[in-house]
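User: Some background: our group keeps a shared notebook of sequences we're curious about, and every so often someone picks one and asks for a predicted structure to add to the entry. Today it's my turn. The entry only has the sequence so far, pasted here. Could you supply the structure so I can complete it?
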Amino acid sequence: MTSALASLLDNDLYKFTMQYAVLQHYKDTCVTYQFTNREKDLHLNAEAAAWLQQQIQNLSQLCLTKEEKIFLSQLSFFDETYVDYLSGFRYKPDEHVKIQFDATTGDLELEVSGLWHETILYEVPLLALISESYFRYVDQDWNYEGQHQRAVEKAKRLLNAGCVFSEFGTRRRRDFKTHDIVMAALTQEYQAYQQAKTHSVGALSGTSNVYLAMKYNLTPIGTVAHEFFMAISALEGIEKANEKTLEKWYETYRGALGIALTDTFTTPVFLKDFGKDLATKYIGVRQDSGSPKDFIPLMVNHYKSLGIDPLTKVIVFSDALDVDRAIELLTLCQQYGIKASFGIGTSFTNDYYKLSHPTERSKPMNIVIKIKECNGKRVIKLSDDVLKHSADQATVEAFKRTLGLE
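Assistant: Of course. Here's the predicted structure to add to the notebook entry:
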């Protein structure tokens, strides 16, 4: 059986950018990741679990092609040493992945552990495969009809509204075929938009999926994830973890990939660390939990308090976005005087209706794989949304006390 993944690069850019930083700063660090299914009523069956386990084994077949190596070499933020490292990279699922499936309950337990730089690429492919296994063998009440046109219509609305957006849907896609259909449609509509407009305002800025960026001649989009902040809180101390992480990231990329993630330990804690020096160095911030409507004035006022013109900065929104929400947030950002960009994921790559009830949505999975331990220390994400906290209540409360949130 061949891999359901298209390539080693069938992954999100932020995993590669973090891997590059880890290789520079934390090469001997060991980590553990843990899978969580947030939708308790969506379970795998025995067929799905068997297919998934085979696909995990098939990860070891993936390797960088000559064409892919050339593509990566053209990305200015990676050096030749890293491209060579990735050329020799191989997944080792027997060594790194532990998986258990309970056929009675349908519950899946999955952990990934090992050296950070060797295990960091597993998260997104594993999530994509888990989602695909469910829609192959459990929920089969759907087909691909209408997917292309649905994506075209979404792109048309976003572009005509003036939205700058990118596709962020690898982790929770229905399958690779859906992802490819969507990217073909988005690219097609953007090209038509560019030809029709003398002065384009809206834009398809790219895709987080590196393989599809290469296939469709788009910019791969991505910077850093919560995992990097969480691990550094263990390695460098949780106090000022945001500041230390952003400094390490800037040391690696010198202003490239300069979007700061705000909500690993809640945005109020982040803002205490995000002083004028860092706020000047980073071109903007990413909002990924909590209320975006509250976040916009909060960031605008923070920039103003530092003597920075908010119009020189951008907020990247990436939390459960759809077309309507993106357009609404763009209008708000324009009113407050700050630029906006949108990373849209599940709404692009897992937007289906049931065949049996064409007006009823086919529910996507809500699944995550989060870093759990770093060099044996428990790490957590606090988030601006309590439902996204990544630990039990006692651990959360202990971290809050350390951060002065109690």
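Suggested note for the entry: Residues 176-196 form the longest helix (21 residues). The chain has 18 helices and 13 strands.
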